[in-house]
Every structure is written in C-alpha cells, then in structure tokens.
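Bug: token stream looks shifted between consecutive jobs. Job 1:
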Amino acid sequence: MPLDPTTLEQLVGFYAKRAPMAAPEVARALAISGVDAGTDAPSAWRALLLAADARGRVGDLAAAVSRGLPNDEKAKDIARQLAGPVPLDLTRLCSAAIQKSASDIHLKVGLNPVFRIHGQLVPQLEFPVIVNESLGTALWGIMSEHQRKRFQETNDCDLAYSVADLARFRCNVFRQQGKIGAVLRAIPSKVKTIDDLQLPATLKDIAQEARGMVLVTGATGSGKSTTLAAIIEEINRTHSHHILTIEDPTEFIFTDQKSVINQREVGVDSAEFHSALRAALRQDPDVIFIGELRDLETVEIALQAAETGHLLLGTLHTIDAHETINRLLGFFEPHQQAQIRLQLGSVLKAVISQRLVPAVGGGRAAAIEIMRNNGTVYECIVDGRRTREIRDHIRKGRANYGMQTFDQHIFDLIKAERITQDDGMRAANNPDELMLKITGLSDDD
C-alpha cells in the first residue's frame, strides 16, 4: 500500500535525526543513488522514502535502517510495522494442532489462531495475530479453481487440505463481517476401528447389515464421521463389497482390504452432489456412504437406494433416534408423511446417536444411543402417535437387541472409569434417574 502523506512526513522526521548512523546501511541495502543524506537530511530521507515506495521497497528500507541502528527499539518497531503481514504458515499451524491433539483450528482475523483441545478453545499465542491479507493468501493457495469460483459466488466453501505424512483437514472457509475466516477439522491419517475407539460391540453387528439405512447422528463435532469411518472399515475388513462414498469434501481415506472402495468428492470427481448420488445407483454398489442427508432430494434418493437392496450410510445433525425420525419426515409435505413412515419403517435398520464426554486422563469418550429396528420399533415409526415411545423401547431392548440409551451407556462409562461421575451427570438425559442407578437404588437396565 503506498505511503500516505502523514506517514511519509512522520518517517522523514524520525529518520532524519538518525541519518548519520543509518544512511550508509540504507545506501548499501537499496542501492539508491543520487541522494546525499549528509547535506539536507529531511529532503534526503524524503527522496529515499519516495524512491523506495515507488519500488514497493519501504519495508526493506525500514529493515535496513533498523540494522543500521541495532539499539534503537523505535526503528525496530517501525520496521516490523512496515514489513507487512506475516505469512500464515498453514503447515506449521496444522503440525502444532496434531502435536497438541487439537480437533479443530479456528482462524479469525484479529485473533491468534485458536485450537479446540479436548472440547475447550485454547488461543495459540506462539502464532502471530491473524491479518486478513495473510489468511486470504494462505487459504486461496489451497483452493482448486472450482473452489475459488464457489467461494467468490457464495462467500463460503468446503475443501480438504492435506499435510504430507501428518493428517488431512476438512476446511470450511467463509466470510464474517467482510473478512475471511476458516475452521479446519483434523482428520486422522489412519482410520480407527470400532475396537480402537472403544465403541459398543453392537456397531459390529450393525456393520453386517446387507441392505437398508443406517444413520449416525449428533451435533457438529460429536465424532459422527469418525464412527461412520469405523463402521465402513469394519465392512471393508470383513466383506467383499463395493463401497462407494460421496462427500463434500472427502474426509477419511480408506485402503482397500476385502472390499473395493471408490471415493468421490463433490467438485473434484462430480459436479454436483445429487448427480453423484443418482449415478451411484448405476455403479454396482453394495454400500453407499453419503456425508449428510442435507435436503429433500438427497433423502428421496437415499430411501430409493435403501429400498433397492443397498446399504445406505449417512449422517444427520439430530440428537437422538426420536428426533431423527421426525427430521426425516420433516423434509416431506404433510400429505406424504404417512407413506414415508412406511418406507422408513421398512428400510431404517439403525440410528446411532452420539455425544462426546471428557474422558479421564484427557481426550473425550463417545456416549452412544443405539436404536435398532425390530417389530415394536417398526410400529412406533409407522404410527405417528407412538413415535415418542421409541425411547422406552430402546431402554428395554438392550439385552435382546443390543440397543441402549445415552444414560445406560453413560452409566457403563462411569462404571468403567472412562469418564467421571460429574461429567457423566452433565451429559445425561435424566441425571436423577442416573444417580439412582449409580447409588444402587435402581436396577433398571
């Protein structure tokens, strides 16, 4: 940015007093000739600054003066201010996030980078305060042409960013208050198994389903993608299937084992999400994974896939099975919902809902509700007057069907000393009933 007249005169006044010491270093650094700094210091410095400004070298000039005045803190401060924004080193930033076990990186202009570590936002003061220019340059550099165009049109964009031999990151770039912002979600380079994550063994049974719909639900940041990746890895490890994933962007990268896995990224491998999902039905899949049931068209195609003999895996931002069914119905007009209830009752195999609870010793543990479709649950899905009964049937279906409520699983986690009682109580749906069970006053399982 060109020097404004006020800044120019302030610099002239400051540097002119220091010309005898600094001028030789300046002359060597910039090779600006025709200026005699020893005769009329103000006019000489004005000429130097204007010449440097015309070449875009004011920052270099200030740095040269600072080297010529090694003990002058004011000269150093001016050099720092005129040096321009410090480039944002995304590789170093992502490396630090992985080293600190951060799940997310928040980048906002005017703040130091912020990591989410074990659920808490922690400013990273060892990194400089972010400026709009450096953040924009760094993010623009990791976008494809398609993503840049989308960002220019919509002011937000999803993409994947990889750091070699470290990890992948799901990145959302957006604008807020006219400035650029971004959040990067760390995705482990290795897909963890159900056992690695210490998830309920029932998930292995669910992974054996040959057809139908399995949904993993929860709030943003609750680990849905990690759990679904573990289920896909279980299928990959135990079945000879064709698994097709459609995501925006692709998160976990799988290695073929018994299965053949094709992973399509919207904007890279397919122009549109819906067209990729429709095409999937013609690509001989056994299992289709879609990142999110995001709209009516996606839900309609997902139901069609599940009805025609495929296993459809997907996610929803809902907190439990009861809300999940209502959310799916909500995509349709009221006059369609009776028919959709019949379809859901026929194809919905399981709803896995989860929330993360601070774990003893650091990290977080997944508390999971599991609903599996049986005769009674089918009736509750089909009959809207009985849908609210599903929670009770989940509680009663643990022994025979592997179902469990949040509170049942939270009790298990407390008993296994994976989470504290206080954290378990805060995460419970019904803390009073959970306390009765913890104290032995209730044996309700």
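Job 2, same session, no restart:
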Amino acid sequence: MHHAGHMVLGAGEALPTRQRADLYDVNVLGTQRVSRAALPKFA
C-alpha cells in the first residue's frame, strides 16, 4: 500500500494555512486517491 507523506516538526497551529492545506492534501487526500485507484484492481 501507499505510505508516503510529509512531516513538519512543531505545533500544527503555528503553520500557515497554505502549508496546512498542502500537508492535508499529501497526507490524507493523496493516500485516498492512491487507494481508490489501486483497490478496484484487486477485486
């Protein structure tokens, strides 16, 4: 499965909104996109 992502050290509240959105896109939505693309091929 897909286990890539980005990490930032420090408090998440201190990050600029754009950086938080980028982290969410890679770490959450990216994983979801890869899973949705791969899982039908296993059926």
